[in-house]
């Protein structure tokens, strides 16, 4: 069995065949999906993700303001996010949040301040966080150390594509590290070295669908069923059966989020 620890199934890319996508995931042995709601926090994006997740026993939800949308974050957005998380037991994480200095869709100083604020709120609500970081490794670690060191719950560095130094820092801070389809790419040697280094009890797998389809699906829309190929990539790197990778990464997720075992979508 497998868990897709990060997906965006409520997005428009799945409007035409969402039920078929969920059925394919079940048939592939995917027992649980964490669907991550993103978008302008003043829109209905979070509510859409929550409604979708609440419609299925084995789909949980995370909400938070992505660094791309940090320019929209304000007191009202913060209060809304806090209220939604407090009112909905199936929201199990605040995220994805962090820093993205590659696209700079929001000013960097705004990204940093919004990242700080959301970490503080997550700590106050005692929920784990989902971290997005791109071309901002040192800044991400500095903010987490300053704002989240005392948090009892940690979270996930999702869709990890950073350096070994970032992985070590994330591990030292108590985070899990989630690998996506990138780990199956032929030229991803540096990332494969990181995936071989991270302790097995700290690894997760994800699709980040509809993005980043793994080999052999590159160029196609990604979906949760393809998380099996991420597990296959790790099994080859770690020289362990794919079933064992599936079991370990699923156990890691369930334990981290204090969830009971599940039986399938």
Explain what you see:
An eight-stranded parallel sheet has the order 1-2-3-4-5-6-7-8. The longest helix is centred in the middle third of the chain and has 18 residues, at 108-125. It has a single domain (2-256), classed as Metal-dependent hydrolases (TIM Barrel, Alpha-Beta Barrel), CATH 3.20.20. The mean pLDDT is 96. The protein has helices spanning 18-27, 45-53, 75-87, 108-125, 137-148, 164-172, 189-197, 227-238, 242-256, and strands at residues 2-7, 30-37, 59-63, 91-100, 129-134, 155-157, 176-179, 203-205. With 265 residues, it is an alpha/beta fold. Strand 6, helix 6 (164-172) and strand 7 form a beta-alpha-beta unit.
Write the layout of secondary structure elements.
Layout: E1 2-7, H1 18-27, E2 30-37, H2 45-53, E3 59-63, H3 75-87, E4 91-100, H4 108-125, E5 129-134, H5 137-148, E6 155-157, H6 164-172, E7 176-179, H7 189-197, E8 203-205, H8 227-238, H9 242-256
Parallel strand pairs: 1-2, 2-3, 3-4, 4-5, 5-6, 6-7, 7-8
Helix pairs in contact: 3-4, 4-5, 8-9
Tell me roughly what share of residues is in helical segments: 40-55%
Give the strand order of the largest sheet, numbering strands 1, 2, ... along the chain: 1-2-3-4-5-6-7-8
CATH topology: TIM Barrel
For the biggest sheet, the summary is:
8 strands, parallel
Unreliable spans: none
How many separate structural domains? 1
Number of strands: 8
The structural class is alpha/beta
